[in-house]
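User: Second chain of the day. Same drill as before.
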Amino acid sequence: MAVPLNQATRIGVTNGGALGATTTTASFSWNANELLIMTVASALSGGGPVPTSITGGTSGLTFTLIDSQGAGNVIVSVWRAMSTTAGSGTTVITWNGATRGLYELEGFSGAAQGSNGANAIIQTVKTSAGSQTAMSMSFAATPRTDSLILAACNHNDSAGTMTAGTNFTGVADATDGTAPVEHIYVEENPNGSAPTTVGLTSSVAGNFGFVAIEIAPIDVFPTSIASAEAVPTPALVFADIYGTVGDIASAESVPSPLLVMEVTGVGDIGSAEAVGIPFISSATGVWPAFYVEAAFTNKALDLDANVVWTDLTPWVRAVRISRSRSREQARFDAGSLQVDLDNRDLRFSPELTTGANYPNIRPNKRIRVRADHNGNIRSLINAYANSWSEQFSKPRDAIVTLDATDAFKLFARFEIPDSWALAVTALVYAAGFAAAGHYLWHAKGLHTPGGLLIAIAVSMAPLAVYGVQDALDLWGQFGKPGTVQGFYVWIKGSWIFMEVAAILAAAIALRFYPFPFIVVIAGVALWFMSMDLAPWIAGTDHADWETRRRVSLWFGLGTLVIAWVVDWLRRGDFAFWLHLFGMLAFWGAVTSTSGGTMIDKALYCAMNVVLLFLSVFLGRKVYAVFGVIGIALYLGDLANKVFRDSLLFPFALSAIGVAVIAAGLLYYRHQAAITAWLETNLPDALKRLRPVHAG
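Assistant: Same format as last time:
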């Protein structure tokens, strides 16, 4: 069924009085994705004009004209607006010369969306007449039963009584007795009726402008199914490709089904009844009750006594079961289960955060199918979900196909054994490399090969953590991020545990084996963490670009501070990789800032110039590399603006490149002199901040 449309009055009928050029409405509030419909009645002797616009004010909303209709001095217009975020404020009506005006605002939650609510309006109809007491018009197409009809009119009387048409209810009624006289009236029909004809009457004859719109709800199920009653109570069909199942000779023995069940193959015994296939008793003729259930809130390896089952049977359309083997002489294969689930209300959509079963639509959830024959409950299959595949069919139907496999496949080749194997393999490799590295470091005094082996052992930490997490389904709020290969490709919040493990392992290794190259593993993990932290801060799987950029900027800056502290406290080049990956995060975040004024870009250039000075002060060439690239980017952008559409542009770029190279050569030639000057002229307080290797 459709999501019901819920109506709320945002601004009751308001008399604009003697109009100026514009009118600022009363303040109103709205919810995210709420459809706002403003009805405006305006009047002017000689013919009422439609407002020029409805926009601005403190709300920031812009209303779009849906339709308008007038007669004589009066006209009615209907406008729409929608925002993806909730808010409150005012808007401004520009009257286009009208001298009198009335307006009214309604809000509808659950409406279809689109740009500014465009998808919510299915169709419109309008008419006008003079000296009438009754108006009637018909939509071109029959409205849906789950949509809502809103009709609005402007009538040039001040004393008449308006009466809603058949199937309609009046929701707004007000007059303005000052000439030119106008009378606004708004009526709606409730969900559940589908009136093609829209009408109303007045006790006083006059000129009418009359407009009606059909508002669509959010929906995904077919228009051919008007309600749940249009579909019969599910009947169960068993089709066995190996012949008779129980007392049913063929699928035709069962009435026309909505629900189809196919059972193929037998168990080890060879008897259909012995493996739990449901049957109709020849003695009683009773068909068994049939259940499909899921253990949404449990882990794959939870004990049966602790499992809580959720009944999925009301949403089941079809079930297909393939048993372990088709005959006794055949080898065992994993049993498989496919269930087609009605997903018109999106309760089985894996990524929909507002779905009834979110966030439990995941792989490895236990699924079971049972049959109850007069209290004799038999299990058809116990399986583990592989996937939940969404399918949408025109015009508005939706199903999810649940694919699952029984424990034979789970224990033979599925994720849990693979995950434990990965964890154990990573730990064995780590122990082997660590033992070899320790021997070379201490027994042979070979620090370089020994340190490299220790670094390889440290790199095993993320693999071991991934294996344990995957085996125990300990992924946290963002779920499994994918295969371990995706660690180097995709930005996912769930990778954060692997990155923490790499950093801790590197820190422990450095405590016992002070080998600078081990820091590269911590540096890469910190760089990845600067990106994977964004979902945790945003509280959603996919943080927006600006959030990710800001997290990367501050994280990179923090990494640089740590690198400076390491440089200042320790001898040996332990901070190089921290400087590199800190600059990648910080400089990359600043450089990826979109837009910006010329002043912003000049400040960006100044920041890169500062990086050049920091390179000299800290004795770190990495700052010079990023600084030069940043300055070149700024000068290239400037040249593009100055020499746009000019033959001088390539020459300008070439000049920038030559200048960068010349500056690098000049610095390299005078590096020793520059360093000596700094040592001579820097205050002692600044000298103490320089790393030992920079002196």
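Residues 415-443 form the longest helix (29 residues).

User: Great, on to the next one.
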